[in-house]
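README: folding subset

This subset contains proteins for which both the sequence and a predicted C-alpha cell string are available. Records are stored as plain text. Below is the entry for M23ase beta-sheet core domain-containing protein (304 residues), shown exactly as it appears on disk.
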Amino acid sequence: MSNKKSWTIILSSGPQAPIKQFQLRKLVFYFSLGFVLMLFVVIAGLSLSLNEVTTEKQNLAVKLENTTAEMEKVKQDYLVLQQEALTVQQSIEEFKQLEERITNLSLDMPIDLDPDAQDGSGGLQFPKQYEEQVQQTSPMLEEIKRELPDLIEKFEDAFTRLSQYEQDLRTVPTIIPAEGRITSRFGNRRDPFNWNTRFHSGIDIAAPLNTPIYAAADGTVVMARNNGGYGLTVVIDHGSTYETLYAHLNRIDVEVGDKVKKGDTIGGMGTTGRSTGVHLHYEIKRDGEHIDPYLYMTFHERSQ
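--- output ---
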C-alpha cells in the first residue's frame, strides 16, 4: 500500500511477465461494495415482492374459481326451487280452469209454469231443450272426470317437492347473521396484528356492543363456549351439509344441544378473543370446507 487512503494491487501472469499495478482507493472500494450489497438487497426484496404478488395472483385465481362455482351452485339451487314453485303455480292455474269449467256447466235447468194447463194435467213444464243440454254437458263431465285424477296427482307431487325444497332451504344459511357493516371479506388479507398475509376463513361484521346475533339457518348448537382466539363462540350444525360459526361474542344465549330456528337470537356481538374491536366473525362450512359467506348472505337479494 502506498498510503492509508488506497491499496496497491499488483498483477502478474508469471515470473518473466511484466508486472502491472494500480491504485484502488478505499472510498471507491467501500462505495462500490455498499452499492453491490444495496443492489443485492433491492433485487432480493423485489424477488420476494414478485413472489408474493405471484402467490397472491394464484390465490385470487383460485378464489375467483371457487366463488364462481359457489355462485353457480347457489344459482342452480334457486332455479330448481323457482321451477318447483312454477310447477305448483301451473297446477293451481289448471285447478282454477277446471273449477271454472265446472262452474260454467249449465246444470240448473229453467222450468216454466204453464198457466193454461187443465186440471189434472199440465203443471210444471220442462223446456224442450233440456235433453239437448244434458247431451252437451255429459261429454264435458266425462272429460273432467278423466283429467281430474292426473291433475290431482301432478299437483300433489309438485306440492310435496316444493315443501321438501322449502324445508331444505330452512337448513341453508341464507340470512345475514347480524346488522352492521362488513369490515373484512373472505380470502387472503393482511393480519391486523402483524400485517402478514393470511387466509381469512369468514366475514367480519362490525356493529355496536351486544348487537343481536342471529342463527343463519335451522340447526343444532354443537358449541357454545370460549374458543381461544375466537373468544366466545357458537357453532351450529345445520344437518349433513352446512355448519356455521359465530365468534368474538360478548354473550351467548344458547347451550349445546339447543334446537334453533333461522333468525333466532343466539348471542350478542362483542370483542372477546383475538380481536381489534367489536365485531362478529362469521364462517360457513359446506361439507367440511370453508366457503364465502357473502354468497349466501346475499342469496335473497340475488334471487329477486
